Amino acid sequence: MARYEGGPQCPAEVAGLRDRIADFVRDRVMPCETVLDRGGREAAATLRRLQDEARERGLWALPLPADLGGQGLPLLSYAHVAEAEGASDHGPAALGSAPLLDVLMLRRHGSPAVRERYLKALVAGERRTCYAMTEPDGPGTDPFLTVTRAEPGPDGRWTVTGRKWFTSGAADADLVTVLARTDGAAPDRDGLSLLLVPTGTPGFRVTRELPVWGAAGQAEFALDKAVVDADHLLGERGQALVIAAERLQLGRTLRCLRWLGQARRAFDLMRERAMTRTRSRGPLGDLQLVQQHVFEALLALRTTRPLVFEAVARLDAGLDAHVEVGLAKVAAARTLQQVADSAIQVYGAAGLGPDTPLPALFRTGRAARILDGPDELHIASVARRVLRDD
User: Fold this and answer.
1) 41, 126, 247, 267: most buried by Cβ count inside 10 Å?
2) Rounded distance, CA 165 to CA 41, Å?
3) In 59-213, where does DSSP find H-type helix?
4) Contact 296/306 with Cβ under 8 angstroms?
5) Which residue pairs, CB below 8 angstroms and at least 24 apart, start in 355-358?
6) Which candidate, 76, 71, 132, 119, places its Cα nearest to that of 97?
């Protein structure tokens, strides 16, 4: 399949590892997707079993810091692995790479107590964390409208009150990073801080799951005067958006890599169907309209992958990547939706039912154009930078 990819080829020293990851995701994770999508106890037990298998095979926590128990795979190498593990939405969680953003954030901005208490447990998979910014009564693209509030007490502890929603993994998390207003009032640009809230804290309550087209994983929760220790403030008071900006570019780029993996999976399914499905007049792939679906899907993959890896390269070099990440995010989300849609069309009715992963891949592609910033946000942001660039 390598000749269909476009963009940089996988380095020889990483190719074997990528292939092992691809085999694990295909043979172990993908057969469990229906159970994992439902959530609940059976899903949790299944995920634990997969994680144990990943550890036994030496595939656990590849990109996480080595001094914390990960394997320290550099970003340029991990990018190729991320495509392979991302072919399933559940690949990163099964392989222990899902908490990468939170681990890096806590390592850099957490207090000594937070780093000591949580970091190694997160890398080991003993604790789970999530990140909450969006609120039900305001647009997720405008953090200045945040109304969740954290008030300092005389003992230095924070009392947090508010609501968050569409928070990935909140129902099963042990810790949640909450964007809260510590000073001023909405829509002030200053006064926003990040606090790490243990989900066992009195006053923290998951109010409902928010299935995305039937798939579990997103939730809404409330904080009703939840008291958080002073040392659970991340970074400096009022510096939430600086910390958030650090993780956003890497986070969006990692998602793009995983969406590429899923788009390639949809393409492979479509290609196989076109080659093996026969009609009374010959193979399905002989039809020009089917050939057009294959061509347009391949074109999308070949033009999107270089954009994503350009963003990876700039992030790895420590350069500003706002334009590259914006282009990659919009292109990768569109590509996944387009390729999955074409594959469904080639499959016909079978592509709508439970016998293929295509409905789930299409669901992910469509949601990708809204979650983590809608297309319109990235389009406007990139255009503004280009228009003011000298």
Assistant:
1) 267
2) 22
3) 75-85, 91-95, 100-109, 112-123
4) no
5) 356/269, 357/30, 357/33, 357/265, 357/269, 358/266, 358/269
6) 71
First-to-last C-alpha distance (Å) of the chain = 41
Question: Burial of 278 by CB count in 10 Å (0-12 exposed, 13-18 middle, 19+ buried)?
Answer: exposed
Distance in angstroms (rounded) separating the CA atoms of residues 367 and 26: 23
User: Which parts of 4-130 fold into alpha helices (H)?
Assistant: 12-24, 33-38, 41-56, 75-85, 91-95, 100-109, 112-123
For the 2-104 domain, the top CATH level (class) is: mainly alpha
C-beta separation of 125 from 51 below 8 A: yes
163 three-class SS? strand
**Prediction pTM value:** 0.94
Six token digits for residue 181: 């207003």
Q: pLDDT in tens for each of the 390 residues of the chain? A: 455 667 788 889 899 999 999 999 999 999 999 999 888 889 999 999 999 999 999 999 999 999 999 999 999 999 999 999 999 999 999 999 999 999 999 999 999 999 999 999 999 999 999 999 999 988 877 888 999 999 999 999 999 999 999 999 999 999 999 999 999 888 887 899 999 999 999 999 999 999 888 788 899 999 999 999 999 999 999 999 999 988 999 999 999 999 999 999 999 999 999 999 988 888 899 999 999 999 999 999 999 999 999 999 999 999 999 999 999 999 999 999 999 999 999 999 999 999 999 999 999 999 999 988 899 999 999 999 999 975
Angle at the Cα of 228 from the Cα atoms of 226 and 232, rounded to 5 degrees? 145
Residue matched to tokens 């057969």: 31
Is 243:105 a contact under the CB 8 Å cutoff? yes
Which positions ≥6 away from 202 have C-beta within 8 Å? Answer: 226, 227
Of 125, 128, 123, 129, the C-alpha closest to 65 is 123
CA distances from 220 to 44, 138, 281, 378 (A): 19, 14, 53, 25
CATH architecture of 242-388: Up-down Bundle (1.20)
In the chain, what are the domain boundaries? 2-104, 129-234, 242-388
Question: Alpha-carbon torsion 263, 265, 266, 270, what sign?
Answer: positive
